[in-house]
Amino acid sequence: MPAHPDRFAHAPSRRDCLRQAAALSFAALPGMAGAAGRNAVVLSLSLAPDSLDPTMAAASAVGEVSHYNIFEGLTRIEEDGQVAPLLARSWSLSPDQRSWRFDLRRGVRFHDGKPLTAQVVRASFERCAAPGSTNKARRAVFDNIATIATPDEHTVVLTLHHRDPDLPFRLGEATACILHPDSAAHAATRPVGTGPYRLAQWSALGGVVLTRTGSWHPAQHAPLAQATFRFIADPAEQEAALAAGEVDLLFQFATRVVRRFQDDRHYQVLIGHSCGKGMLALNHRRAPLNDVRVRQAITHAIDREGFIREVLDGRGSAIGSHFAPTDPGFLHLDSLLPYDPARARALLREAGVRTPLRLNLALPPAPYALSGGDRLAANLADVGIDAPLQRLDWKTWLDGPFKGDFDMTLINHVEPLDYRIYTDPSYYFGVDDPVFRSLVQQHDRTPSPRERQRLWAQMQRRLAETAANAWIFTPQIGTVVRKGLRGVWMNYPIFAHDIGAMSWE
Fold first, then answer.
1. Average pLDDT of the chain?
2. What is the C-alpha separation between 343 and 439, in angstroms, rounded?
3. Where are the domains of the chain?
4. What is the per-residue pLDDT across 484-496, written as a single tens digit (0 to 9) for each?
5. Which residues 6+ apart lie within 8 Å of 288 measured at CB?
6. What element of type H or E holds 149?
7. Whole-number Å distance between alpha carbons of 321 and 456
8. Higher pLDDT, 276 or 252
9. Is-contact 325 474, C-beta < 8 A?
């Protein structure tokens, strides 16, 4: 890649220094197959984690680094969305469909040598359900556990308040990883898990470095001795790192950075599906966003197809509720409140809104938000809504919008089956809809598959009709991978990078 003509006309930025230092450190490694050599791999993610404890932290980047690598759950979710055994070697369901019995693997130990037992699993789940827990799946999973029985060292019985046929899937998500009670308190910075890797380094310069540990399941083997996660948010810097050969894998939504490497002789591009729900989240606690007509107007103002074409390079699907095309029983509801600026203006007048209406638009540091903010602001301006952009770092976004201090924010929710966030008025966008809560409760209680499917459809329609948020897209995932690196996922039912499954040809 040619040097910029002004490259030496100014002092190098902090980003330049970091990139140069990383390049020098990688160049020093002998026997290179890629950026890190045949015994290691370098991955580039857009967002840096603020913690390494996926059971308590909100950012998906936490699980991307630690899930399957440092921490493991009772089950694992495969690339095709199927559930497989992990720390539990098998499970069974009682005739009343409310009690799940898990048989644990024998001989599994944490990195500090402590054994995995049924009592450890119970303590880990009780921590997730405790008052003050910040576990993202607390409402969906842990509040539904009525009792946890441990009849012996290797058996865990979970009895639920209401049936949940998706429980094995939910226990395969990062939020249900098993932490030992003796080390859980410092898992955010000094994680101790049962996975094939342990934390070796975490710094602004070096990113996160994981090294292989010998305490993983005896029957399995991780081919790679080391994995380095680098965190690069700026698309131009991502492209530069790839062009310089500094990374082996770039995990990214499908943007023009991905297109640039489709015909590169050193890399291949994997285009896959995800369960993400990209949306303009709206704060229901603030007027006039508590008026359904205003929320509907905002949805009508957004050109979903134009956003997908310009921001995601055309790689994505328009959606109209908090459900993704990968969800069973998904309804295509994007046409319910279609792009219609005239209708948006009429609804604002009907709601008594005087324009220009000023609503701040907070943007996290993800590339889709940084490049999509201007596009959304232009759409909103066309109907009389002034949306000043607030570009935030990830910590500021978590401390502000994610705690309810915002008007609007552009965000991609990547957790599958997370519709219960709309039953919790304390969640950051503050939806308080008794009708939706009733539908979810009915869905929980009915044993009839046909009735559950009917209610599933009604839940989607209720969210769409009330414009609980302004949904825009489900992104395809564009992963740029150095040729010769095996075991990389194409499709992402959850956001995880299983280093133990990767190897070099």
1. 90
2. 29
3. 22-46+196-273+477-504, 75-186, 277-475
4. 999 999 999 999 9
5. 294, 351, 353, 357
6. strand 145-152
7. 12
8. 276
9. yes
Domain spanning 22-46+196-273+477-504: CATH superfamily: Periplasmic binding protein-like II (3.40.190.10)
In 349-428, the DSSP E strands lie at 357-358, 361-363, 385-386, 389-391, 408-413
Q: Six-digit token pair at 110?
A: 């944490």
**Three-state SS string across 43-54, please?**
EEECCCCCCCCC
Quick count: other Cβ atoms within 10 Å of Cβ 98? 16
**Contacting residues for 87 by C-beta, under 8 A, at least 6 apart:** 72, 73, 74, 75, 104, 105, 108, 116, 121, 178, 194
| 147 close to 137: Cβ distance less than 8 angstroms | no
Measured distance CA(112)–CA(347) in Å, rounded: 60
| Cα(494)–Cα(480) distance, integer angstroms | 18
Query: Token match 């219609």: residue?
Result: 340
- Domain at 277-475, CATH homologous superfamily: Dipeptide-binding Protein; Domain 3 (3.10.105.10)
Tokens describing residue 225? 């001795």
Chain position carrying tokens 């229901």: 284
Quick one: which of 458, 434, 430 has its CA closest to 446? Answer: 458
| Length, in residues, of the chain | 505
Structure tokens at 11: 């002092």
Q: What is the pLDDT of residues 156-183, one digit of tens each?
A: 999 999 999 999 999 999 999 999 999 9
pLDDT digits (tens, 9 = 90+) for 396-440: 999 999 999 999 999 999 999 999 999 999 999 999 999 999 999
Class of domain 75-186: alpha beta
